[in-house]
Amino acid sequence: MPGPFAWFKWEALFQDWHVFAEGFAVTILLSVCGLALSLALGILFGVLGTMESKPLRLLNRVYVECIQNTPLVIQIFFLFHALPHLGIMLPVFSVGVIGVGVYHGAYIAEVVRAGIEAVPRGQKEAAASQGFSYWRAMRHIILPQAKRGMYPPLTNQAVSLIKNTSVLAMVAGGELMYHADSWSSNNIYYGPSYVVTGLLYLSLCLPLASYARKLERRLEVSL
């Protein structure tokens, strides 16, 4: 009986390399769009979490706690299966972008909030004394100082987001994991399929993870 990594299985995979290339391209596009959404939501809700208004801080906590304390797969299933019952029909790619974007936005919001709170309060008071509004002070004074310490955890969130796109395979998302599952289920060549899939994810995540460690070391040295 041939093993899971028999050579003829690798030959079949190399012949159908375009299947994995297509999934890889979708994963990259999905990751970029999802990261853009998560950064927008993370910055917005992170800033809201530092404001003096209790309703706005409550809005931050509701978003962060609800998203962080429910599994991503449940959120994806809700977007894919529940929204059509509300008359909202979304392409599966949009479901993926919204799902991973909203999910990681909650984690990025905490990174942004912690980064802002690490800036000395005197900076905010000095900005107010110079006539800066809250949002102008955030944009020109607070966030530029806070972003330096936020880069390493934000890079780690990008790595997690790329890996979490694989959840879309459960709803035929068209990304790398879905193509790997579809191809291998037709011929039972799971060994080569998952090895190549893992290596492709590694090619995206390892450089980012290494960059995050480099940023952390640089931050430690500067402190």
Write the layout of secondary structure elements.
Elements (H helix, E strand, L loop, with lengths): L6 H9 L1 H32 L5 H15 L3 H11 L9 H27 L2 H9 L4 H31 L11 H12 L2 H33 L1
Order of secondary-structure elements: HHHHHHHHH
Computed structural class: mainly alpha
As a whole number of angstroms, the C-alpha radius of gyration is: 21 Å
Largest sheet: none
The parts where pLDDT drops under 50 for at least 5 residues are: none
CA-CA gap between termini: 60 Å
Mean pLDDT figure: 90
Strand count: 0
Strand content: under 5%
Percentage of residues assigned to helices? over 70%
What coarse outline follows from CA principal-axis ratios? elongated
Number of helices: 9
In short:
The protein has helices spanning about 5-15, 15-50, 55-70, 70-80, 90-120, 120-130, 135-165, 175-185, 190-220. With about 220 residues, it is an all-alpha fold.
Describe the protein's architecture and organization:
This protein has 223 residues and is an all-alpha fold. The chain is built from nine helices and no strands. The protein has helices at 7-15, 17-48, 54-68, 72-82, 92-118, 121-129, 134-164, 176-187, 190-222. Helix 2 runs antiparallel to helix 8, helix 6 (121-129) crosses helix 7 (134-164) and helix 8 (176-187) packs antiparallel against helix 9. The longest helix is centred in the last third of the chain and has 33 residues, at 190-222. The radius of gyration is 21 Å and the shape is elongated. The model has no long low-confidence stretch (mean pLDDT 90).
